Amino acid sequence: MTSENIQSFEPDIWAGMECSYNRVGDIFIDQLSQSQHYERLDDIEHFARLGIKALHYPLLWERYQPQLASLIQWDWAASQLNKLRSLSILPIVGLLHHGSGPSFTHLLDDGFAEGLSAFAKQVANEFPWLTHYKPINEPLTTARFAGLYGLWHPHAKNDVVFAKILLNQLKGIVLSMQEIRKINPDAKLIQTEDLAKTYSTPSLQYQADFENQRRWLTYDFLMGNFDRHHPLWSYFFDLGIPEKMLLFFSDNPCPPDLLGVNHYVTSERYLDDNLSLYPSHLHGGNSKEAYSDIEAVRINHGQPSGLKILLKELHQRYPIDIALTEVHLHCTREEQLRWLKHVWDICVALNQEKVTVKALTVWSLLGAYGWDKLLTQPNGEYESGIYDLRSPAPRQTALAHYVKALSTGTPYYHPLLQQKGWWQKQSRFIHPPLPKSIDGPVEVSSPPLLLLVDNGSLSRAFEVSCHQRGIKYQVLNHQLRNDGVGSSLEEAVLLYKPWAIVNATDYTKRMNNEQKVGNSMMHQVKEMRQLIAICEKYNIKPLTLSSVLVFDGTKNSPYLESDDVKPQSFFGKNMVEIEEMAVGGHCQALIIRRGFCFSPWESLDLGDGSSSYLENHYSFFDSAHTIISPTYTPDLVNMALDLLIDNESGIWHLSNRGEMKCSDFVREINRRKGTVIQQKTLLPPKRVTPLPYRPLYYALSSEKGNFLPVIDNALDRYFAEASFK
Fold this sequence. Notes:
725 residues; alpha/beta; TIM Barrel; Rossmann fold; 2 domains; eight-stranded parallel β-barrel; six-stranded parallel β-sheet; dTDP_dehydrorham_reduct; NAD(P)-bd_dom_sf; Glyco_hydro_1; dTDP-4-dehydrorhamnose reductase
């Protein structure tokens, strides 16, 4: 098949911002406020550079009409919509996104549907040229979360409330589209819903069958297909839902013009009545029996599953064109890239099979907040998307480059896309199939990441992280390189053809003796010079790590990337030389400066309050006074790999957010261990030869972005993950 023919089957690229505006108790959680979209004037221009054809843009009821009598201010909406119009980007306007309406209404309010439709009428009057609407996003999902699971307002856990919430929302969609079409008869309804499926053990098949009928309710009702012959008619009727309310939809059909599919890797579920196989937080059930509800992707259930199967089922049930309206994965960068490619390939394949998928929507342009807690708490954990908001301005990730290539029909290549996503590997299973099978080697044609390693925790962290993330890698041992045994660096490059090289050797543990430091550092400078030369020769990107010790420690606030370097030790001077060498090369080197690091493979042996661990790692630290930024090595390494995949270059500071005195760090470690120490034991141990310099301030921050969690969070995970326990 020619490239022209293949392109004819490619869907358009749409995009959307995570814009949930949900209610928990009396608290409204607004994603776009958290992402500061309303404070930036140039987001639309950034999005346009991706080459997208359409943008899901929210004009949310809760935000624009917080009070019933309030006069709606349209200035912001008008400016954004007019930008989209001038850029030839189609706006798809949403009015509710997992919301329950403003504070003067709620999902069980008898006037909810009429209130929403009145707001929809105002939107259409103000912007009569708008043609594409999704009045309520995922009404079935919202009804489950708010009416069955108790997560969102009104926090109910019963079927009656679920049914009323669902029907109230669906009626709101019907009435809204009626009002909109009075103003613009050609207005299109794009109805989004989570495309899910449930699998189960044989004894729970009845529950799976029920949930697999329930998943179609949004479309069944809107299309006017819900009548007395519907499989779930008796379910609603037995709940006491009036027949008139049910028949409203067959009397007022509002079929979508396009089926909007939101699908996540966890959308498919598996029900298992063997509770002993799963932790208690996965235990649940219905009114008849208890069972666990698990992501189906984690279970080797042997039934046809996955997005392609589900899209075919959807098309068979409703022969209407489809658009993927949310495509996103909360995971590491390479897995995000793989998920996007996975979904894109499915869309192209289905179009070839005459199952029309008109568009793929890259979701979470600005990332998302709090979905790790299902939007039940404000200020939740941030996950990046096409852009990373942890920088002062939205920073393009590797996803942005991939999206632009897909939008423009430009070939995009990254070796990491040639490897399987975690959802495709045997290792994903909670209970591996018998006989136990393992993933075969990664495709031979996939170039690896080359790690230059020693026996330190930094090297181990890179190896562990690459293994966990499914990043194919090869190692070149530091000792072999020093001894001239085995492959030289250039021989390894010619053999493995790596896409990048990480210098993961750690010289900070050799700093107690300046003479040893000098010998070691002279070799490191020579090795770095060789690395840069080879990277320039073979067009390979290098990543290397530097140190906070390029600074003099006299500043009163955290050091930033633009601060002048003033090393006070031989080690620091050599690190500056290495940095200058890397930055001055022509290979787009990425240099990560770090401070004091701790890893789960090393015990913070501070039980007696001594600073031995700190002294052995950073001999220039005065544990009683020096201020540092303790950094968890796995956090450092994972973010460094993300930046490498994003093709960032130059000098970046990475540290867990916050700072503390070495002595306070010692106290905190011992407090968590339950060890009581005396102030006098916090002083550094006596030395035969005093160290030449002991600065007082070595905390790091970054003007390029604060990417790592706070120190307390890092310590929580250290004590949970440490292998020495």
